[in-house]
Give the backbone structure.
Amino acid sequence: MLTGFGDASNLVYEDFPDPEPEPGSTVVRLEAAALNWHDVLVRQGRYGSPLPHVPGSDGAGTRVDDGAEVMILPSLWWGSDERAPGPRWEILGDHRPGTYAEYVRVPSECVVRKPSGLSWSHAAALPLVGLTTYRALFTRARLRAGESLLVLGAGGGVATMAVTLAAGIGATVHVTSSATEKIDAAVALGATGGVSYRDPGWPAAARALSPDKAGFDVVLDPVGTWAQALEAVRPGGRVVVLGSARAERADLDVRRFYFGQYDLLGTTMGSPADFAGLVDLVERRGIVPPPVDREFPLSDTADAHRHLESGRGFGKVVLRIRGT
């Protein structure tokens, strides 16, 4: 439970009222929950959450009403327009109690069957990062088999999911990272190679790795380095932006942008239709979700946040709910 905004010490292991069933909603008994950087922003007070509060967007468990094994879709009340979310849209764990708990209540459309081949940890780790990445790559950027993709910042959940999904459909994938071991780990997931973004000339080095040396068809930017991303994309290519951890503002060369015929696409989360597409792709292609970097008991949520913020991991951080 979050008792105040600030550092991880504000996350304490205490009792919180269990949710009661409501018309149009379903209560899920959680087995596991997964951390996202979004949870850190909630903890810091960036979304004005009520206090005390239960954060957490990702989770998997069993329906209380019929015992079915399910995953939680954390994109609530998206609406009927697939182009963008409607006015009621919100992310689970922002203003409503989330998944760092034994039970959670969500709209019934946000309870989705768990693929039988996934462990509880992988099922909990898939929804937010999988949904966000699927929409970014396929709904927004229209990535196809045979195209090339550059993923910025290998190691995070979105980056590892992007490598897995893109390689799974037959795209050629490269990554950037600050550490050689993270590039190597991305290669193990299906990437072809990568470059260090600690080198100021990394955009040119990345372009040199693209199939025809002209740049990548798609650059996925989960960190907010638009100007450098545009230096690595090919003329007529697409840059899809879904984060701002490294920078919240960017200076762009406007003339170069329009002469390059680039598409600059913003995205976040996704709709139930996007999530259905993700689950179908995972099952049809036999795609394995991102690796689980480390698991913590629910009682050690503060330590899990500290580990996530350290940046030392590769893959997802998971909370095991049962037995804690």
